[in-house]
Amino acid sequence: MIQFTVNGQLRQVDIAPDTPLLWVLRDTLELTGTKYACGQALCGACVVHVDGAPVRACMTPVSAVAGRQVTTIEGAERSRVGRAVQDAWRKLDVVQCGYCQSGQIMSAMALLASNRKPTDADIDNAMAANLCRCATYQRIRAAIHAAAKSLA
Amino acid sequence: MLNTTIENASRRSFMQGAAGLTLGFCLPATAAAPVAGQAASAPPVFAPNAFLRIAPDNTVTVISKHLEMGQGTYTGLATILAEELDADWQTVHIEGAPADAQRYNNLFWGPNQGTGGSTAMANSWDQLRQAGASGRAMLVSAAAKRWRVPAAEITVRDGVVSHAASKRQARFGELAAAAAAEAVPASVTLKEAKDFRLIGRSAPRRDSADKTNGKAVFTQDIHLPGMLVAVVAHPPRFGATVRRFDATAARRVKGVVDVVQIPSGVAVLARDTWSAKKGRDALSVDWDETRAFRLGSDEILARYREMAKSPGLVAHRTGDPEQAFANAANIVKATYDFPYLAHAAMEPMNCVIHLTEQGCEVWNGEQLNTGDQSRLAEVFGLRPEQVKINMLYAGGSFGRRANTHSDYVVETARIVQAIGGKAPVKLVWMREDDMRAGYYRPLFHHALEAALDAGGRLSGWRHRLVGQSILAGSPFESMMVKDGIDAVSVEGAANLPYAIANRLVDLHTPKDIAVPVLWWRSVGSSHTAYATEVFLDVVARAAGKDPVAWRLELLAEHPRHRGVLQLVAEKSGWGTPLPVGSPGSRRGRGVAVHESFQSYVAQVAEVTVAADGTLKVDRVACAVDCGIAINPDNIRSQVEGAVGFALSAALYGEITLREGAVVEGNFDTYPPIRIGEMPRVEVHIVSSAARPTGIGEPGVPPLAPAVANAIGAATGKYPDRLPFRAEDLRA
């Protein structure tokens, strides 16, 4: 039995400890906002926060989060930064297909939590791990600047 | 559990007929019947009931017959209907339509429902305006009766019906039940463009909220009670089959429930995705490769180059090309090579099927609704109407989910059959399965020659193409392959708009290449625009002409091409000097213009090429004419995205076959661009009163040639193969 907190709720799962956190979230806990797209930590569609830091859930064994705080896209609106990022994403209509956007938002939140006034270069660095096949990158950059402004 | 239910609209209208307004519930059946095989230009017969529902709580539900895969279709279609209805945008909800060839066919595709060819807005424009206007008229009529006032004195705005003189008002919901009893008007008056309040105003996307909080439901997210997840071992080469397999190790994986052979491989079924994947990876399969396809990309290309030495089937001929070349003062030649490309949507292919005693229910990012419905009916021995398809959001597609062979959908059905229908099945392709299972943009070779006469005029043009047919063997073959010419192999080449008196376009279609091919965002134009637009620049350089001025001269009879070209030239600062780059680097500006799906796009790219050949695309200015701009912000968004998508292919996109096996498997070997590689993109829209056309695809074709022409301007070298390679661009 592995125990950890997801979006403020204590959860227990009876599962092989090497199971990636991604599949525990999606299939066991039915929190499907976190997406599978590459399974190799190449695309960032599965980014969640573990104790506030962004991690790729597809390559993180569930045993590694025992006793820790996991935040997924479903919990993004619990923080001021999360709400600011979501609002900016909506105001600028960043999304297209939307499949990668949970990961984009989680990465953007992690950036803004540590850097309240990111430059374009800071954004390109922090978001380099997140692929978007629709190439919404220009709006992602603009939305992060907009969110930073609203948090200032 | 599933939190999005997409009900069959007809059943719901029957059940809710008394509670709310479902347009045309009272529409005579004859009026609702469509005309089979109806031509695109004929006035469509509408069943406007099929698109609109208004509930007593004021919710306006627009039913979309087209797939939302990122291109903004749901928002665009709802905008058209809501405009004529005068709905409050905040109350508009959008629901995917059930598969139905009668009510929800794509009006450009005869009796077929599906999304593609950037047709959604163009084929729905009249249909949804009329559906909205009918609804509005019935609400007005109901209010007039209730208030005993003339209907002509009633106004409607933002979901509120008003009579100014008596100061009475009602929201749509209050009138819904009464309106349901009104007769559907025989004809309606549509708004004039000057009165539009939503069209042209960039209504916010209705899917933004759910796509930013994790609530949007994709096929990948479906959980049904008792559902099994299937991961499949596919053959390593196209055409190989299972000889035998050993499932001992796979069955030992905890969570694995079953292992079954299907025509396309071996499927491992488990209670969850990870167990199914582990089980699949533990399989030992002995493949029979005696009939497998074993050529590599290099060998295919070598064959195509050989074929290009002899004439192909004529796709276009004007004037006397042979004479023009015989009389030429100067002949310019070039060849261009294009690789296989994978769609690589972020959501790998997947599908959920639940077989019941009544029929089967499907959850899918459904792009060829009635085609998949028919194939599933065949597989299961059902009538098409027993196959209920829930059209979910697709996490990208770029054409991949519009598969005329229904490949992954049928694969799911075969798995369901193999387990005797004992459980609902979710097929999940891992990224590598998705990238290696085929259906690529076909590899193409182009050979071009231009004749310049003694006066430096472009007097002759010969363009030969070699590549597989997408439509051969598909249900569209009879419609779109004529005299051996697949229309989508030569689109953008056969219909070259430039005024060239003597022109020949011919095509070789190799039939012995067993690589599955499919349309890839912008289809034929994904390669023909490059070959024609880059070659035109090469010839312009030989003729000493300015690329923009020369194009404008050659496009005298094509005002919409000229319109976007002039706008992009102005906005990009064409003709002004570019700021110099860092020492050793070379900078250049390049242009391309291309029409696809009746939308016109011109782009000017600015690039920096480092001494070692490293390429950076700094800026792309775009001008677009897609008729009336239903949602200008979505047009900008689509073209921004198209630039990034096309740039990914131009910089990195290549599926390589080695002895028939696909080399690339994931985003490390088939990388899209990342955020730091995204150029600054600006999109300018030509103001137009023409009927709206699509914007999902047309932003793609001009990008690679514009970049190549910028490279040419910077270095004097015009890349003759894609993707670009640093070794081709070194100083």
UniProtKB/TrEMBL annotation, chain A:
Listed InterPro entries: 2Fe-2S-bd (IPR002888), 2Fe-2S-bd_dom_sf (IPR036884), 2Fe-2S_ferredoxin-like_sf (IPR036010), 2Fe-2S_ferredoxin-type (IPR001041), 2Fe2S_fd_BS (IPR006058), Beta-grasp_dom_sf (IPR012675), Diverse_Oxidoreductases (IPR051452)
Domain 2Fe-2S ferredoxin-type: residue ranges: 1-76
SUPFAM superfamilies for the chain: 2Fe-2S ferredoxin-like, CO dehydrogenase ISP C-domain like
GO molecular function (one): 2 iron, 2 sulfur cluster binding
Entry-linked Gene3D superfamilies: 3.10.20.30, [2Fe-2S]-binding domain
Keywords assigned by UniProt, alphabetized: 2Fe-2S, Iron, Iron-sulfur, Metal-binding, Oxidoreductase
Keyword Oxidoreductase: yes
Family matches, as Pfam families: Fer2, Fer2_2
Name the UniProt record assigns to this protein: (2Fe-2S)-binding domain protein
TrEMBL record, chain B:
Keywords noted in UniProt: Signal
Domain of life of the source: Bacteria
GO molecular function: oxidoreductase activity
Listed Pfam families: MoCoBD_1, MoCoBD_2
Aldehyde oxidase/xanthine dehydrogenase a/b hammerhead domain sequence ranges: 213-291
Signal peptide region: 1-31
The protein's name: Aldehyde oxidase and xanthine dehydrogenase molybdopterin binding
Species this chain originates from: Accumulibacter regalis
